[in-house]
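User: For my dataset I need records formatted as: sequence, then structure tokens, nothing else. Please produce one.
Assistant:
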Amino acid sequence: MKPTKMRNKRIYRALHQVVNKQISAPLSKDLRKKYSRRSARIMVDDTVKVIRGEYKGITGKVSKISTNNSSIAIEGNKKEKLKGDKIDVYIHSSNVVITSLNTNDKWRIKILEKKPKSKIKSMKADVKKKDDTKSTTKKKDDTKSTTKKKDDTKSTTKKKDDTKKSEKK
């Protein structure tokens, strides 16, 4: 079977919870620094900005999420039909950037604030480097302190000799 056919089967036969996880969008630069993540799952009441397509530049809150098309509807962004009815315009989730998150869900914040594995690895490497530099500085300090101790013992012996000489006089 062709790879494209297999991929399509996987996409269209996926469970609802798998498809729901796939509806995500990149975070804005501010949120990226705050949470140290590039993307997050879109939820209702998140504020997003459209960056591609016909509706580029529109910002608003997410009102609906469609798992069928992996798309979202933004509040106030409606299209008028010929009969005069207004319907929501659905925009694909890859064409938007999340500018602010809905922080009502504690679990979501907990997941977002978790450090990604790549970040943990880099932090461990930094700690190892710091430990290596500390150990080399300690060795240097130890050699300096031993020379100071030797100098101190020499000076104390000199003082003792001086006091003995003064007593003899």
